[in-house]
Amino acid sequence: xIPKPHVMFSEAQLAERVRxxxxxxxxxxxxxxxxxxxxxKGSFLFAAxxxxxxxxxxxxxxxxxxxxxxxxxxxxxxxxxxxDLTFPVENQDVMIVEDIVDTGLSMQxxxxxxxxxxxxxxxxxxxxxKPARSRVKIDIDYLGFTIEDKFVVGYGLDYAEKFRNLxxxxxxx
Length: 173
Ligand code: IMP
Ligand code: MG
Fold this sequence. Notes:
The chain is of the alpha/beta class. The protein has a single domain, classed as Rossmann fold (3-Layer(aba) Sandwich), CATH 3.40.50.2020. It is built from 3 helices and 9 strands, in the order E-H-E-H-E-E-E-H-E-E-E-E. The protein has helices spanning 11-28, 44-53, 105-115, and strands at residues 6-9, 34-40, 59-69, 78-83, 93-101, 121-129, 142-146, 152-153, 169-171. The chain has a 6-stranded mixed sheet with strand order 4-3-2-5-6-7, with helices on both faces. Strands 1-9-8 form a 3-stranded antiparallel sheet. Inosinic acid binds at residues 42, 68, 75, 98-107, 151-153, 157.
């Protein structure tokens, strides 16, 4: 049995930060059309909450499933699309919604892939970033929290597919 993860960011802290990110995005995209691209599976809860914190008239939501190959908790940068977008993003303002940028290799793959679809703009909203493990420089436009080099779970993030349903971000000891 894996012990219950201890709290790094509580449900209330997450809600507060997501509200702030949503308000900022609302302000920045006023009068524009926005396509939220939520990266599955990890961002499903974050994206659901963020979408409701964005108060714009024209928001579309699509999902892109990514699987990053690696040994255990280590990313390899070899990424497979497990579920693709359901509509083209050509000439659209795209916001990638991601749970965490760790080495940055998955995000780099994603940026390269999206660029081939000729969107008008691509920005990144990530709940968490672990700068200590960064292997490629990723500019995150809207960032929830910077964290130290700890493996976190909950609020969509998993360890071997477990813990995604925790309402908080926790650390396994
Ligand atoms: P990358 O190393 O930036 O390519 O991260 C790839 C993916 O690994 C992220 O999108 C997450 O889904 C997952 N990941 C990275 N760090 C953690 C963590 O601390 N907990 C859970 N998943 C993680
Ligand atoms: Mg992810």
